[in-house]
C-alpha cells in the first residue's frame, strides 16, 4: 500500500529526475506480470502458494504469510535491480487490512526491500518513523 508513496517521496526531492528511471505499482499480483518486467519466474514466485513450514519452526499461518511476503519482496527488488541494470531498486509488499488473509493476521505490515547491487538492506524494527533515512538532496548514480 505504500509503493506509490515511496515513489512520490523520491520524486519530491530536487534533482531526482536525473537518477530515477521509473517505477511500477502492482496491486493485483495475479494480473500484474507486465508490471513485473514481464518476467515469468518473478511473476510465478509472487503468485505461488505460501511456503509450508519446512524450516522446522512451528508457526501459524500468519507467520508463514509474513515470512513468505518478505522473501518475495526481497526477490522482486533483486530482479528489478539486475534486470534494469540500476544501482538501486526498492520493492514493497505487505498487508494493510482491514480484512486479512490469513484470518489470524491481526495487524498490517510492510515488507520493504531496498537492493543496492549486491547489498541487501534489512530492518526489523516496528517503528517505521525510526527506520526511515532521508534521501540526499543531491542524489548521484543510477536508481529505480
Automatic annotation (TrEMBL):
CinA C-terminal domain boundaries: 2-36
Pfam families assigned: CinA (PF02464)
Protein name: CinA C-terminal domain-containing protein
InterPro entries in the record: CinA-like_C, CinA_C
Disordered: annotated segments: 111-144
Amino acid at each position: 500500500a505504500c509503493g506509490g508513496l515511496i515513489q512520490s517521496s523520491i520524486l519530491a526531492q530536487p534533482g531526482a529526475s536525473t537518477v530515477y528511471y521509473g517505477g511500477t505499482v502492482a496491486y493485483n499480483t495475479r494480473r500484474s506480470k507486465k508490471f513485473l518486467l514481464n518476467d515469468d519466474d518473478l511473476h510465478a514466485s509472487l503468485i505461488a502458494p505460501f511456503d509450508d513450514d519446512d524450516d522446522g519452526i512451528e508457526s501459524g499461518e500468519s507467520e508463514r504469510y509474513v515470512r513468505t511476503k518478505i522473501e518475495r519482496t526481497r526477490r522482486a527488488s533483486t530482479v528489478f535491480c539486475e534486470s534494469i541494470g540500476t544501482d538501486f531498486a526498492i520493492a514493497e509488499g505487505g498487508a494493510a487490512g482491514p480484512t486479512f488473509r490469513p484470518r489470524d493476521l491481526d495487524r498490517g505490515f510492510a515488507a520493504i526491500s531496498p537492493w543496492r547491487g549486491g547489498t541487501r538492506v534489512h530492518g526489523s524494527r516496528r517503528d517505521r518513523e525510526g527506520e526511515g533515512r532521508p534521501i540526499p538532496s543531491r542524489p548521484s548514480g543510477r536508481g529505480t
